[in-house]
Amino acid sequence: MKSVLSSKLDQFWAFAGGVSIRAKILGIVLALVALLGIGITLQVRAVLSRTMDTQLREQSVSISRDLAARSTDLILINDLYALQQLLLDTQSNNANVRYAFIIDNQNHILAHTFGQGFPPELLSANSVSVTEHHHTLTLDTDEGVVWDTAVPIFGGQAGTARVGLSEANVRRSVDAVTGQLLLTTLAVSVVGISAAAFLTWLLTRPILNLVQAANAIGNGDFTQRVKRWADDEVGALSEAFNNMSSALARAQEERVERDQLRAQYVSGVIGAQEEERKRIARELHDSTSQSLTSLLLGLRTLADGCDPAMQQRVNELRTVAARTLDDVHNLALQLRPSVLDDLGLPAAIQRYVDDCRSRYPLRIDLAVRGLDQQRLPANMETALYRIIQESITNVVRHANAQTASVLIECHNGVVRAVIEDDGCGFDPSAVELRQPHLGLYGIRERAELLGGKVVIESAPGQGTSLFIAIPCRC
Amino acid sequence: MRAFRLILTTLLLALAGCGTPTTAQVVHLSQLHPLPTNALSGVIPLRVAVAAVISPKGTVESYQPLMDYLSAKLSRPVELVQRRTYAEVNDLVEKGYVDVAFVCTSAYIDGYARFGMELLAAPLVKGETVYYSVLIVPADSPAQSMADLRDKVFAFTDPMSTSGRMYPTLLVRELGSTPDQFFARTFFTYNHDDAIRAVAQKLADGAAVDSLVYDYALARDPDLARQTRIIQRSPSLGIPPVVVNPGLRPQLKAELRNALLGISSATPDGQRALLALGVDGFVAIDDGAYASVRALLTQAGAVSP
User: Fold this and answer.
1) How far is CA B181 from the centre of its chain?
2) Looking at CA atoms only, how far is residue A76 from chain B in angstroms?
3) Are residues B220 and B200 part of one domain?
4) Which of A28, A222, A308, A378 is the most interior residue, by most CB within 10 Å?
């Protein structure tokens, strides 16, 4: 029983929770009006029935008493015709009177209103003793309930008057009133539902506005504000919501500002780094290379005037100096290839790739498209150069690959770079989770500073693909 | 759902329940059967008619003790028969539908003339067998005689009554008029009680009533004495007698006469009967006692009963 009850309750909650607030409010109003209407109707019906039954009973007694008083003389002087007329008049003047009859003190019927014949059970259905004022009871008849009153005439010496009042009229009146009340209930229900529908609209309008605004905030639009319709709880909620929106908007602004500051800082650091590399490269090229070249020339001159043994030594030193010059040259190139500034990205990449091919046992395919007509902004060229430089360094250091390919193209305002290898591969999520890999981190940082994106596709044994997309004005 | 239905039923029963007893049997009001004819009982009652000198109820109250007395005396049930008019009672006597009748004086004279109605006895009141017709008016009326009642409303008792109609008609004739011309309006009350009440309630400006009834009414209802007063009294008239049909069995006639004449206040039954009637007893009487009334009726002339 308890589980049945709780399951019913669950069903109810599932149903009540599933319908909209509008349906809930309408349901409450409808249920209230219906309950009230039906309750009042039942109560009025009961009270009315009781009152009218009492009235019918009193009417039954008063008509019987009246009839008894007026029939006394007629019975005593044996005027049966007048007696019959009196009964018929009584019946025709009282709509509720179903029958009336007079019996003498020998229990013989003197006059009655039935016309031809008389219902056999009626005579014995009620009686009154001579000492009683009256005796009333309800009879079950084939025409419904009848209130039968017996009154002794002239102290019982002249007989008994019997009058029967039918409840039919009373029942009809009660039914009519019930019908009226039910109709009124129906009318009030209609008015109530209309009012409730309006009220519900008033109530749910700000809530729907809130839902809309919350969705907008979810999509990043912090400008949405909810109109405060009323000065109630929902109004307070709207205001709180608007305050929250403002706070969120402020927080968003601050975050953007902070991000910008960081980006400026990072790009400043990167710029400073590039400048420093450029200066060191220039220094290496202008000063160290010149010194080494002077040293080489000096050594050659020295070798010309020496004995062969000494000449052998000097030539060895010349070889070392030449190799050092070569290394300085390479170092300057790696720090900042002047070709990047002078000839642009494609030439610098080509040069770098050529350099790698000569130094590492790795086959590298290079394709550059859409950049032969124009040069990209200097910071973007630097960033792309460094990204490709770092990527190839990673391939050489970690991938153990036979082949790598580099593709750069500029198309529809986006510069894309794809660096692929057939190396051992790795799990990108694991690498990024473990600790930020500084090389990959640098690639990502440079791309994002320019508003670009980096996607790494790799799996152990499957090689690695690195996609970089950066928007540009070309 | 079942529980709900149960609650609803209980509620409806509680609402419908009331303290009135109800018969278990269903009465079929639309199934009408012919009424059984009243079976005659083995004993034929003595039927006694009483003319409507006083109201039907008053008659029962006054005469029922005498009926009980006669019933005991004759060892048979007695049925009291009343009719609205004197003429109807005379008719009952003439046709033998009643055995004995208490009639009014003029009704006797009429019955005597018509079919020889026979005197059985007469009540004795204050030692006499006479009564009077008294002319009464409301207590505050300025009228002093019949002459003052011209163009007023007058209440007659019964068309055949000596005291209630014949005597006042005679008075009007003596004034040289007829009741129709003399009075503004007249009506019949058919008994003396109602005539007295009609005057007391000023429904009528005057009426002539049986002095015996008037005295008896005043004794029962002292208010009437304050509301009415007598302005004229007739000469003595022969008292309303007890009569029988001339063809009644002599044995029954003798038994009845003996019963009436033998009634005495010495026995409780007799005392109760006489007290209720307001008479001292019954005496034999002969037709000569009504000669004066006959003369009066002749004087009253063509007053049709």
Assistant:
1) 29
2) 6
3) yes
4) A222
Which phi-psi region, left, alpha or beta, contains residue A435 (left: φ > 0; alpha: ψ -120 to 50)? beta
Residues A140 and A72 in one domain: yes
**Count of domains in chain A?**
3
| Residues of B with Cβ-Cβ distance to A77 under 8 angstroms | 52, 56, 82-84
Query: How many residues are recorded in chain A?
Result: 474
**CATH number assigned to the domain comprising residue A21:** 3.30.450.20
Expressed as residue numbers, the domain containing A385 is: 345-474
Query: Which residues touch A166 (CB under 8 Å, ≥6 apart)?
Result: A96, A97, A98, A143, A144, A145, A146
Beta bridge partners of A400: none
Note whether residue B82 is domain-resident: yes
The reply to whether A1 touches chain B by the CB within 8 Å rule is no
Q: Rounded to a whole number, what is the distance in Å from the CA of A72 to chain B's nearest CA?
A: 7
- Same structural domain, B125 and B248: yes
Report d(CA A114, CA A179) in Å as an integer.
Answer: 34
> How confident is the model over A143-156, as pLDDT tens digits?
889 999 999 999 88
Contact yes or no for B27 and A53 at CB 8 A? no
pLDDT of residue B304: 44
- Whether residue B23 is contained in a domain is answered as no
A117/B29 Cβ within 8 A:
no
Residue B101 Cα, gap to closest chain A Cα (Å): 14
Going from the C-alpha of A364 to that of each of A403, B122, B124, B129, B220, the distances in angstroms are 6, 170, 170, 172, 153
Q: Which residue of B has its CA nearest to A72?
A: B57
Same-domain status, B115 and B201: no
Please indicate, yes or no, if residue B18 is contained in any of the structural domains: no
The residue among A292, A310, A336 that closes a domain is A336
Q: Which of A77, A98, A164 sits opposite B84 (nearest CB)?
A: A77
Q: Identity (one letter) of the amino acid at B256?
A: L
Element (H, E) at B296: helix B291-300
Residues B149 and B281 in one domain: no
Together in a domain, B83 and B181: no
Find, among A22, A42, A46, the residue nearest to A207 by Cα.
Answer: A22
| Contacts with B81 from chain A: Cβ below 8 Å | 78
ipTM of the complex: 0.76
- With an 8 Å Cβ cutoff, are B25 and A125 in contact? yes
Asked if residue A368 is part of any domain, the answer here is: yes
B→A contacts (Cβ < 8 Å), by residue, are: 15-16, 18, 20-35, 38, 52, 55-57, 59-60, 64, 81-84
**Same domain, residue pair A462 and A403:** yes
Q: Which of A45, A72, A120 sits opposite B33 (nearest CB)?
A: A120
Q: How far is A103 from chain B (nearest CA, A)?
A: 12
Q: Radius of gyration (Cα) for chain B, nearest Å?
A: 26
pLDDT in tens, A307-365: 888 888 888 888 998 899 888 888 887 787 778 888 888 988 998 899 888 888 889 99
pLDDT tens-digit series, residues A59-70: 999 999 999 999
